[in-house]
Amino acid sequence: MIKANQMMVSKYGAEVSGESVSGRVIIKTGLHLLANTRIKGPAYIGEGVKIGRNSVIEASAIYDGTVIGEGVQVRNSILMDNVRVLDRTTVSGSVIMRNTTIGGEECEISDSVLAPAPEPPEQVKDLQRIALIGSRGRGKQRLVLWPVLS
Fold it and tell me: pTM for the complete prediction?
């Protein structure tokens, strides 16, 4: 899935060479970048995305309405619609499903698929394939960690 997004951008994206944005990229309308933010292609940035100060997006797809905090690193990942990534989070090789809030305070997420937990958690049928994980701080949310299948 991550590789497919990168291939799409490599084929259809525009080559850009600038201080904040470089490489092959597809950027939809309404992108809001703050100071010292860098996007390195291949990258797809959806509509209404907000990226905080000192953040780096590299070889990733960020879909509509996603808000990325300050000092965030996103590499080789997909963030679906309306994801919220809290300040000082690193995401690599992962897929974060829509309407999920992740990270904060030096949190590192790698090689994972994260989605909001179903309510109630007992509705999850294949408990051997997932683990329920918690999040700390404001905006607490129960998440399901789906293993990446090789």
Answer: 0.80
Strands (E), the chain: 14-17, 21-27, 32-33, 38-40, 43-45, 50-51, 56-58, 61-62, 67-68, 73-75, 78-79, 84-86, 90-92, 95-96, 101-103, 108-110, 113-116, 131-133, 143-146
SS3 call for 37: coil
Confidence at residue 112, expressed as pLDDT on a 0 to 100 scale: 86
Cross-strand partners of 53: none
Q: How many degrees, rounded to 5, is the angle at CA 124 between CA 102 and CA 86?
A: 5
Answer whether 114's CB lies under 8 Å from 97's CB.
yes
Q: Assess whether pLDDT exceeds 90 at residue 75.
A: yes
| Distance, CA of 89 to CA of 79 (rounded, Å) | 13
Q: How confident is the model at residue 7 (pLDDT cuts 50, 70, 90)?
A: confident
* Structural domains in the chain plus CATH codes: 2-110 (2.160.10.10)
**Average confidence (pLDDT) over 91-120:** 84
Residue 147 has pLDDT above 70, yes or no: no
